[in-house]
């Protein structure tokens, strides 16, 4: 368990309407930078993001998809992403290490890490997602505050605070994700690790025979993927993201791709959800046995880059 130094109370929200624990280790703890604990004013872009994760949109969906098995391929891929995140942190930390889940959403990873002896703090901008996360933690018997509403490009933490940082799917919702990467590099301890994930912009092209044919006819390279414009939730280029992280001074630990497909024709799925999931899992197993790494870089739905901050 980390040692906490108190510097006066910090008013933190109670996301689910319940009273915060009186001995919360977030209240006045030494790693909070109290001067930037306020959330940045909402912009048009941020308002779109908040609407996408609002209570009446998808916040309950994100809670439910981690509570049970579903037949939607993307939800299956996200559960695999959660599992890989847990494995990554457990591999690179020891009990009592402080972990940051940046963009924690409904807190499935926070809950999983706390159950495994890691001290995890979740940060998200969406109050709806944080409310769902708070309910999840309380249902698990966790009454202390582990969730903070914050801005990912101005984190309310002191330098060199965390042994490991997870950032799962967040950068697609930022206009300029390089600012987030700089913040992650700041709050990571020397030798600390980062897992960064996002949707792969090449997958929609390479999973669609019609799109492949159309590009062949136009003489357009298959690998000339699209970042789907500049809108919240866009898919990203794995190579470009990697270059941006390396420029921030982090060093690579490896890459993992999750989720082949689903197979589409002209953007429409042609297989049922359960069949798409079985096909994806089968391809992942096959390529793994053959030792083929390139399909993961180009054909999977979720790209995972892993890094370390130099000591």
Structure report:
By secondary structure, the protein is of the alpha/beta class. The protein has a domain at 34-202 and 229-261 and 301-308: 3-Layer(aba) Sandwich (Rossmann fold). The chain contains eleven helices and nine strands. It has helices spanning 44-52, 59-65, 73-92, 108-115, 127-139, 178-187, 203-206, 209-218, 238-247, 273-290, 294-299; strands at 98-102, 119-124, 147-149, 162-168, 188-199, 251-260, 264-265, 268-269, 300-308. The chain has a seven-stranded mixed sheet, with helices on both faces. Strands 7-8 form a two-stranded antiparallel sheet. Helix 5 links the parallel strand 2 and strand 3. Helix 2 runs parallel beside helix 5. The longest helix is centred in the first third of the chain and has 20 residues, at 73-92. The radius of gyration is 20 Å and the shape is globular. It starts with 43 loop residues before the first helix and ends with a strand. Mean pLDDT is 83; it is low at 1-30 and 32-42.
């Amino acid at each position: 368990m980390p040692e906490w130094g108190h510097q006066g109370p910090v008013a933190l929200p109670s996301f689910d309407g319940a009273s915060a624990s009186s001995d919360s280790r977030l209240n006045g703890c030494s790693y909070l930078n109290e001067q930037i604990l306020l959330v940045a004013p909402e912009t048009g872009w941020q308002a779109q993001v908040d609407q996408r994760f609002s209570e009446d949109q998808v916040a309950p969906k994100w809670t439910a998809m981690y509570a049970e098995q579903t037949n939607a391929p993307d939800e299956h891929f996200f559960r695999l992403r959660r599992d890989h995140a847990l494995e990554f942190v457990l591999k690179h930390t020891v009990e009592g290490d402080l972990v940051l889940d940046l963009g924690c959403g409904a807190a499935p990873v926070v809950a999983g890490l706390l159950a495994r002896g890691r001290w995890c703090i979740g940060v998200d901008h969406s109050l709806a997602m944080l409310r769902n996360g708070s309910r999840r933690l309380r249902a698990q018997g966790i009454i202390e505050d582990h969730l903070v509403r914050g801005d990912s490009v101005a984190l309310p933490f002191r330098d060199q605070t965390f042994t490991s940082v997870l950032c799962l799917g967040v950068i697609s919702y930022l206009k300029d994700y390089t600012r987030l990467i700089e913040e992650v590099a700041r709050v990571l301890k020397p030798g600390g690790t980062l897992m960064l994930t996002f949707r792969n912009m090449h997958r929609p092209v390479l999973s669609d025979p019609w799109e492949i044919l159309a590009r062949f006819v136009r003489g357009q390279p298959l690998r000339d993927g699209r970042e789907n414009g500049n809108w919240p939730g866009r898919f990203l280029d794995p190579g470009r993201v990697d270059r941006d992280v390396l420029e921030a001074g982090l060093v690579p630990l490896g890459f993992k791709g999750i989720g082949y497909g689903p197979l589409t024709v002209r953007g429409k799925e042609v297989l049922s959800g359960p069949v798409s999931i079985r096909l994806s899992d089968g391809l992942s197993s096959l390529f793994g046995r053959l030792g083929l790494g390139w399909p993961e870089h180009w054909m999977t739905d979720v790209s995972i880059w892993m890094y370390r901050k130099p000591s």
